[in-house]
């Protein structure tokens, strides 16, 4: 059946098969290792920042566009674009936008403030992510309305400990 099979090709084939089976297990083991110490997530600070920003308002999911790559190959500089899609008028404009990374040790990644003279509320920044997590953007309008958007991001390696 295998007339031209050599011992060398069998050994190389077995090694390749073993490496193929071992790599996903090693990657999963590395990804499941919880971060500790200074790199550990701070869920209490994340909740505090959300509460401070929203106040008594109920956030709505329409009117805010968040553009973040699903896979971040460089966790030290993940591009994030945020844009308020609601009409900006002299009576109601976006006062502030924040970007939060829920599993970072310091969840508040960026804070931007706007005036009515800006005419638009959009920004592009790069943030650092400590691990795969969800990036949240929140915008507060002059009328008191709070807009929210979120996107899950998978990172290739840790960005905070580098």
Overview of this protein structure:
The protein has 162 residues and is an alpha+beta fold. Helix content is 23%, strand content 32%. It is built from two helices and eight strands. The chain has helices spanning 7-32, 43-54; strands spanning 64-67, 71-72, 78-84, 94-101, 108-113, 122-127, 133-141, 146-155. The strands form two sheets. Strands 2-8-7-4-5 form a five-stranded mixed beta sheet, with helices on one face. A hairpin with a 6-residue loop joins strand 4 (94-101) and strand 5. It is elongated. The model has no long low-confidence stretch (mean pLDDT 85).
Q: What is the topological layout?
A:
Blueprint: H1 7-32, H2 43-54, E1 64-67, E2 71-72, E3 78-84, E4 94-101, E5 108-113, E6 122-127, E7 133-141, E8 146-155
Parallel strand pairs: 2-8
Antiparallel strand pairs: 1-3, 3-6, 4-5, 4-7, 7-8
Which key terms come to mind for this protein?
single chain; 162 residues; alpha+beta; 5-stranded mixed sheet; 3-stranded antiparallel sheet
- The strand count comes to 8
Structural class: alpha+beta
- The percentage of residues in β strands lies in 25-35%
Average the pLDDT over all residues and give the rounded result: 85
Q: Report the sheet with the most strands, covering strand number, pairing sense and barrel closure.
A: 5 strands, mixed
Overall geometry comes to: elongated
Unreliable spans are none
Residue share in helix: 10-25%
Note the run of SSEs as H and E. Answer: HHEEEEEEEE
* Rg: 22 Å
Cross-sheet strand order for the largest sheet: 2-8-7-4-5
Taking the alpha carbons of the first and last residues, their distance comes to 53 Å
- Please work out how many helical segments DSSP would assign: 2
């Amino acid at each position: 059946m295998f007339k031209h099979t050599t011992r060398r090709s069998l050994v190389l084939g077995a090694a390749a098969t073993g490496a193929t089976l071992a790599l996903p297990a090693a990657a999963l083991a590395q990804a499941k290792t919880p971060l500790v110490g200074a790199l550990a997530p701070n869920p209490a600070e994340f909740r505090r920042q959300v509460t401070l920003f929203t106040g008594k308002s109920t956030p709505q999911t329409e009117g805010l566009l968040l553009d973040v790559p699903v896979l971040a190959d460089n966790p030290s500089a993940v591009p994030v674009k945020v844009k308020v899609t609601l009409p900006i008028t002299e009576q109601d404009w976006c006062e502030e936008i924040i970007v939060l990374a829920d599993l970072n040790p310091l969840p508040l990644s960026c804070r931007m403030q706007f005036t009515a003279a800006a005419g638009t509320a959009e920004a592009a920044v790069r943030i650092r992510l400590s691990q795969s997590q969800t990036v949240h953007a929140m915008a507060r309008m002059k009328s008191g309305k709070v807009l929210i958007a979120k996107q899950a991001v998978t990172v290739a390696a840790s960005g905070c400990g580098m």
